Amino acid sequence: MTRVLRALLGLLAPLLALVAAFVITSLVLISAGDPVGEVWSEILQVPETRNVANIVNQACVLYLSGLAVAVAFRMNLFNIGVDGQYRIAAFVGAVVAGEAWLPGYLNTALAIVCAMAVGALWAGIAGVLRATRGVSEVISTIMLNFISTSVVAYLLREAAVREEGSNTIGTKEIPEGSRIGPIPLAAADSGPTAEIYGFVVLAVLAGVAYWFVMSRTRFGFDLRATGQSTTAAVASGINVRRMTIITMMLSGAVAGLVGLPILFGEAYSYGSTFQSGLGFAGIAIALLGRNNPVGIALAALLFAFLEEQSNPLQILVGVSPEIVAITQGVIVLTVVISYEVVRRFLTRREQSRVAKAERPADPAGPADPAPTQDQEARA
Amino acid sequence: MTETSSTAPGDPSTPLAVRLRGIGKRFPGVIANDDVNIDVRRGTIHAVVGENGAGKSTLMKILYGVQPPDSGTIEIGGSQVKLSSPADAIKAGVGMVFQHFMLADNLTVLENVVLGAEKQHGIGRKARAEVRRISDAYGLGVDPDALVEDLGVGARQRVEILKVLFRGARTIILDEPTAVLVPQEVDELFGNLRELKKEGLAVLFISHKLDEVLSVADEITVIRRGTTVRTVVPADVTSRQLAELMVGSELPSPGISEKATSTRVQLAVTGLTLHDAAGRALLDDVTFEIRRGEILGIAGVEGNGQAELVEAVMGMRPGATGSIVLTDQDLAPMSTLRRREAGIGYIPEDRHRHGLLLDSPLWENRVLGHQSRPPSASGRLIKRGAARADTQRIIDAYDVRTPGTDVPARALSGGNQQKLIVGREMSGDPILLIAAHPTRGVDVGAQAAIWNHIREARADGLSVLLISADLDELIGLSDRIEVVLRGRLVGEFDPSDVTPEQLGSAMTGAGSAA
Q1: Per-residue pLDDT averaged across A18-42, rounded?
Q2: Which partner from A299, B34, B288, B487 sits 20 to 30 angstroms from A132, CA to CA?
Q3: How large is the ipTM?
């Protein structure tokens, strides 16, 4: 009963946030004199197969970013540095894969491992600083973002190959045998077929692994316990410093995956035009998804949906697609509020249930406990 | 100050300072106050007694304007008032001294007193003169230019009282003022309170220590389960009758059955020393032994090294030197987790900070501190089913009142949270139990149950290191008592022939250590 109610309320909170975001975005549109109805009908129409593929692909990338942030969130660490971590990791992954020291998929696996390791090390810097010197990971990861951007820009010049007749530079292309092939998406109505990243499978596996580690293993328990109360964690024998470093590294390792779907499924090299800003979206998505693996997936799909559907707004109704950034922002703000409202409601409900259990229906009875204990105590 | 000492306590003709009628306050699922009626006369000390959770604190918060009542009326000095903030209460002449002092250590007494009341007498010479005048008038003996960090606990409390008087309070609420004091300081406080009432002020004294209440109060109102049970005059009741009014049934006592102590030493601590960052000794060459089936009580004024001793034995204090041997194992190089695995159970002093994950369900709290051991874990995996089942076992065996194992720990009352912790720490058959204030803030029923569980485990050979601020608990439960003062063990007492006063002397360093 309680669990059902809990689940229902868990769904109600983001729904409330969506409604609020819808209202506020509409108000913004009205005050700017834009056609509210047309904007929404454009955004909310059923996407075509081609758009569905784009949504899934973008969601896959956002999902990994959200997971990376969520790992740290679970321990009350704010990894603002997923952005820097995924870019330096994707760059290293691209170099390794481009060099093709190993054949075929072995090369792919090596590149993925290297990318994760680099992401882990980069985030680990913030973890070590936090554990040994008490430096806030918020500050250090933001700083590391800037450093990462510069380091990648510098190294890209060293490692880059310039294509004939192009201004863009990039790493060596990944050989065809090491690319991750697409999954064809069957068209619903005999329209043109579309393809989604093969990496989506790996993203799903990452979600399953996240769920298992967090809720079924001792490591996950220690991590969550530390996130809830450092003092209780210390008293129960958890080495908080070690957990801080390991968790940041784990978060960074997942962040290392963020750029890889694009790298292995579409771009095949890391260049100056590689997609950026994915790390910051991950923060919003982890918040919206409540650090829950399924919740993060839904949040990632929602964000990707809004972005994809807003693309033609400029052409069709003359409204800047940036309007959905407002929607996304409002969703994140309101969802934090509505989760808190729901949490307080549930706590109050639990307290009254407990109060009932503590005071059985016996208003005239003695002040407290089981009589046997009283008797023993008197002895 | 205009009135003199002629007011007779309990005389119905004495004008009322405070009159509460039908005060009610509900929190979700809990009735904190229900139909509370109290008359406090001017020039009297009026005690409000009741066990923990009876609703005393809520009532005082209502009177001090922190929380509005759901029903009922408050009259102060004969006129009905509506208090929606402490500022309103201060304006109406009601002041409150909280159990935890609210003083800035790095400021002087004068600066602390005028802080937030700068408009009344400025911050300069006039204010200093006013502080002196109040101090002299009520015999508080407070030097306005002393630094608060140099003052002892008793003097700090007097500064708090002075703060309230400076703001013009004619009714003073003291919330468990003696909890932090040793017996000698309590006597001084009572002297101050008598001065206050001689000057015509009304004092509301919240406590659950009955002997103190009987010695200082003019009238006593008993609160049980949120409602006023009776108002009595000390001359008419004994401490036992008062306790029964409070509890509604007979009062349990901690006493132990018979000595179960064997000769085998189970914990040997030798030369345990710990320094703070400034190099001062928090623990200074602490050496003691606890035998199998023995309860060693540590008495001391809070802040003399008890918390550090516990944390050093638990391995939570890096930098502690000395040897700690549990049966045959040297604990010194072990982590906290390894020490727990070696057979230490730990009931922490602050259950919210160290003992529980408040937002996690009870079964996860069962796992806490036992995440490496069956039944809650096997290898690197947490066994949720087994942990739930074992939580249910604790709930049944330790009478934890809860609707289930999935309830978050926060929803439980303090007593039930503590019973859960005791049950958890007793599982896995510990060799040594470290119990820091095991019954602090729990109701009488839970207290009896916890004492009982400790006694039973002791009979089975458990060694217990008991830290408590409750001298009755220490004397009643311990086989032996060591007194700690400034990080050193300064005397050993036999609980069968020691009085709280003797312990109190040793705790302050005043008496001769036996």
Answers
A1: 89
A2: B487
A3: 0.81
